[in-house]
Amino acid sequence: MWYLAAVVVLASCGRQTEQVVHVAVAANCTEAAKEIARIFEQQEGTRAVLSFGSTGQLFTQITQDAPFEVFLAADQETPRKAVTAGFGLTDSVFTYAVGKVVLFSTTLDFTNGEAVLREGTFEKIAIANPSTAPYGAAAMEIMKSLALNAHLARKIVQGNNITQTFQFVETGNAELGFVASSQVLGRDPKSVWIVPQPLYSPIRQDAVLLKKGSENKAALAFISFLKSPDTIKIIERYGYVGTP
């Protein structure tokens, strides 16, 4: 009986000492974050538990006492809002990536993507919810810059986040859609139009250490790892501009 009790105690202690960090990740960064978490665990022996969603949705969860310790947003405004609201640490905010918007289709030829938009010979164009997803806000800005927002308004279908927006296009529920360049790696170049940067404001994606993680060594280690050369290379490989 003593032996069994000792085993139970040791097992319990092992679980208590496991290094874990809970990370809220903007949906556009899903695949890159998964690889970052995998290599982080290999190198640091620490597990990163990832939760994905639109930036706005994740912020709402943070304000509702979600267990997140690190927040990787798809914009700069929301991490700063987290700090102002008392959920994040001021001096921990930094830009971990700069995103790129692309127009994607599984059926249309985007050799001249702007011309396809102007012709408007399609039924539906997908964007992420501009109220909660920065890539959706960028899509609206692009259409406004091209003076097409009124022309395309009735054709717009909204995804809750950039992942659902991509799925709308992938499944044929929309002929085309504005998504993140990280989502279309390896696709036929003719199916992707890289939107010229002057058409929308740069999507600088910031990270912030939340107060729930301020005393968690795993959270501090993850923040440090995000700034490492290895992580910057991963981020760039997924179609972002890395920021040392």
Number of domains: 2
Counted beta strands = 11
Radius of gyration, taken over Cα atoms and rounded to an integer in Å: 20 Å
Total of helices: 10
What's the CATH first level of the largest domain? Alpha Beta
Per CATH, the architecture of the largest domain is: 3-Layer(aba) Sandwich
Strand percentage lies at 15-25%
Q: What would you call the structural class?
A: alpha/beta
Could you give the order of strands across the largest sheet? 2-1-3-10-4-11
Report on this structure:
The strands form 2 sheets. The chain has a 6-stranded mixed β-sheet with strand order 2-1-3-10-4-11, with helices on both faces. A 5-stranded mixed β-sheet has the order 7-6-8-5-9. Residues 1-16 have low confidence and may be disordered. It has helices spanning 2-17, 30-44, 55-63, 77-84, 113-119, 134-145, 149-152, 162-170, 217-226, 229-237; strands at 20-26, 47-53, 70-72, 94-99, 101-104, 125-128, 156-159, 176-180, 192-194, 203-209, 241-242. It folds into 2 domains: 2-98 and 203-237, D-Maltodextrin-Binding Protein, domain 2 (3-Layer(aba) Sandwich); 101-194, 3-Layer(aba) Sandwich (D-Maltodextrin-Binding Protein, domain 2), CATH 3.40.190. The protein is α/β, with parallel strands linked by helices and 244 residues long. It has 10 helices and 11 strands. α2 (30-44) links the parallel β1 and β2 (47-53). The termini are far apart.
